[in-house]
User: Which sequence fits this backbone?
């Protein structure tokens, strides 16, 4: 249970059964006034019904907050992350992780606005999201009181939770009385499916799990070509048409869906210590990652590119583990953003049956010098004879070691 009485709590509210049950639990068990916040992150569902449902559960109309945060989400969270070419454990594009700090920030803003003394979330006690939410809360409001019902309440089973919901007249759809085949988290960047039919990592995920992409084998037999324009590391146009950040990601999602791009079946290491299996779909993000690396390939020099690649795993872990608002993430972001000043130009992308291939790249800041790389003579910046000394200097330690080893048999 909560360690001290609370008067008003801001809950991250989806409108689903679990978060609706939390509303009633906060009201009946803690005696708290509940403020709800529902974010439109591009999950594909209307958010106004969630507001109306919160009101029917006893939340005052002025305390049922909904907000379309899609543009802010992509502009201030997704794009900065992709400037770093961020992937966790070599594969995961962090679609769930990157949404949590924005939700938490909005909750803290609403808590300040409404005079709430607590915030709450519906994450379970086994997952990463509880860490992500709460680290963000504390980073933004050090003295905020945090309530995590899944760690606090006394429900020992799903049936007990459903019985509580029925007692408090919370509508329960028929499928909630059965075993849900898997759980889903979705936003404009991705969809994530976990649990139940996906718990055995030896068994291929059934096709019905996928909701953002068609199967690659069902994709068109003819490739799709697009161009993407970048300015300072961020995409600004597709096929020459300027678009807002959320519109760009929405368009890329459609293109990825139609070409079977962006599926991932992953067993990952959770921050809390266990392994979990998830099926992720990130169609637009997969295209964006490839395109961004494509424009970087001609605009960043070797030292900058390689340093970025060395820093990226640390940056990815910080986001995955919930440290978006940490000083070290902000330090890394400053370095990453500085590297993007000349990452401007156009990339041509080929999409075909689940594959993303970069087939062209141009930039006014390109470091690619065709005269320099040609085998023909005449390049003034490079003398072939210089290579001999360069090689001998780099071979010195190897020659010394080989001489020693030969001397000692």
Assistant:
């Amino acid at each position: 249970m909560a360690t001290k009485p609370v008067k008003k709590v801001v809950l991250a509210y989806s409108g689903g059964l679990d978060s609706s049950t939390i509303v009633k639990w906060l009201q009946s068990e803690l005696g708290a006034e509940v403020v709800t916040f529902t974010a439109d992150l591009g999950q594909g569902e209307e958010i106004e019904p969630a507001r109306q449902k919160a009101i029917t559960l006893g939340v005052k109309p002025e305390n049922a907050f909904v907000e379309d945060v899609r543009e802010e989400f992509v502009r201030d969270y997704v794009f900065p992350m992709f400037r770093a070419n961020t992937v966790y454990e070599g594969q995961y594009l962090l679609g769930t992780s990157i949404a949590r700090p924005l939700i938490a920030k909005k909750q803290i803003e609403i808590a300040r606005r409404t005079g709430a003394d607590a915030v709450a979330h519906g994450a379970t006690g086994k997952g990463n999201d509880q860490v992500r939410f709460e680290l963000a809360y504390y980073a933004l409001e050090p003295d905020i009181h945090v309530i995590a019902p899944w760690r606090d309440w006394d429900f020992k089973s799903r049936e007990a939770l459903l019985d509580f919901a029925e007692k408090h007249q919370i509508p329960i759809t028929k499928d909630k009385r059965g075993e849900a085949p898997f759980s889903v988290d979705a936003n404009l960047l991705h969809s994530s499916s976990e649990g139940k039919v996906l718990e055995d990592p030896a068994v291929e995920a059934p096709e019905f799990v996928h909701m953002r992409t068609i199967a690659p084998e069902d994709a068109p037999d003819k490739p799709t070509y697009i161009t993407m324009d970048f300015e300072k590391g961020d995409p600004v146009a597709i096929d020459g048409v300027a678009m807002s950040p959320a519109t760009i990601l929405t368009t890329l999602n459609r293109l990825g869906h139609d070409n079977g791009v962006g599926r991932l079946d992953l067993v990952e290491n959770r921050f809390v210590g266990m392994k979990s299996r998830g099926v992720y779909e990130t169609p637009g993000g997969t295209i964006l990652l490839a395109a961004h690396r494509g424009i970087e390939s001609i605009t960043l020099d070797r030292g900058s590119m390689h340093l970025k690649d060395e820093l990226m795993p640390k940056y990815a872990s910080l986001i995955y583990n919930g440290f978006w608002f940490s000083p070290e993430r902000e330090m890394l972001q400053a370095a990453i953003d500085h590297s993007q000043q000349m990452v401007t130009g156009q990339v041509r992308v080929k999409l075909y049956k689940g594959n993303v291939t970069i087939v062209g790249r141009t930039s006014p800041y390109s470091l690619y010098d065709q005269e320099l790389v040609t085998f023909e003579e005449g390049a003034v910046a490079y003398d072939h004879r210089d290579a001999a000394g360069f090689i001998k200097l780099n071979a010195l330690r190897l020659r010394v070691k080989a001489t020693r080893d030969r001397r000692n048999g």
Residues 8-70+96-178 form a domain with the Rossmann fold fold (CATH 3.40.50.620). The longest helix spans residues 386-407.
